Amino acid sequence: MTKADSSKRGFPGLIVAMTTLLLSAWAPAAAAPYAVGFGVEFASGKYGTGISSESYYMPLTIAFYPTGQLDFTLEVPYIYRSGSAVFRGPQGQMMPVPPTLAGAMAGAGTTGGSGMGGGGMGPGRGGGSMNHATPGGSDNSQSGRGDITAKAGYILFSAGEFRPQIRPNIFVKFPTADEDKGLGTGELDGGFALEISHRRGDWYSFAEVGYTIQGKTPALPLKDYFFYSAGLGYQVTDKFRPLLEIKGFTAPTEGTSELLETRLRLKYQATTHAGMEVYIARGLTTASPDYGTGLAIFYDY
Question: Which of 95, 233, 249, 294 could form a disulfide with 204 if both were Cys (CB 3.0 to 4.6 A apart)?
Answer without folding.
Answer: 233
